[in-house]
Design brief:
The protein has two helices and seven strands; from the N terminus they run βββαβαβββ. By secondary structure, the chain is an alpha+beta fold. The chain has one domain. The two termini are about 30 Å apart. This is SAV_915 family protein. InterPro entries: SAV_915-like_dom (IPR049975), SseB_N (IPR009839).
Length: about 120
């Protein structure tokens, strides 16, 4: 225990629950499957957005989504190796695809870069 009190020291950032999230799901399936992503360093992460508009701005207007609480999303993603949860990522990087001849084709939208807050 610290014997001194410092009034000008800032409080550490508190982690608050994100609330209901708009969670991207995989298209073209009869069942709902949460879409997982990778961080720039390769770690798996679940992604949620605080509004449908933010989700559409990042992943496109055609991206399907469901509403889940932060705890429900963590419970679904944790057992399959996605221990991180990223809320409101703003950047995406297109996937580089190659052909048999080695030429690069048009980029396909892929995973959000997790430059936003991770909770």
């Amino acid at each position: 225990m610290c014997l001194f009190q410092y009034d000008d020291d800032p409080e550490p950032e508190e982690r608050l629950p994100a609330g209901p999230l708009y969670v991207p799901v995989l298209p073209g399936r009869a069942e709902v499957v949460v879409r997982l992503f990778h961080t720039p360093l390769g770690a798996r992460t679940a992604v949620g957005f605080t509004s449908a508009e933010r989700l559409a701005a990042t992943l496109g207007a055609g991206q399907r989504w469901i509403r889940l609480s932060e705890s429900a999303l963590r419970a679904m993603a944790g057992p399959i190796g996605a221990s991180l949860l990223t809320v409101d990522p703003t950047l995406t990087a297109p996937a580089v695809t190659g052909t048999a001849t080695g030429s690069v084709t048009a980029p396909v939208p892929q995973t959000p870069d997790v430059a936003a807050r991770t909770v």
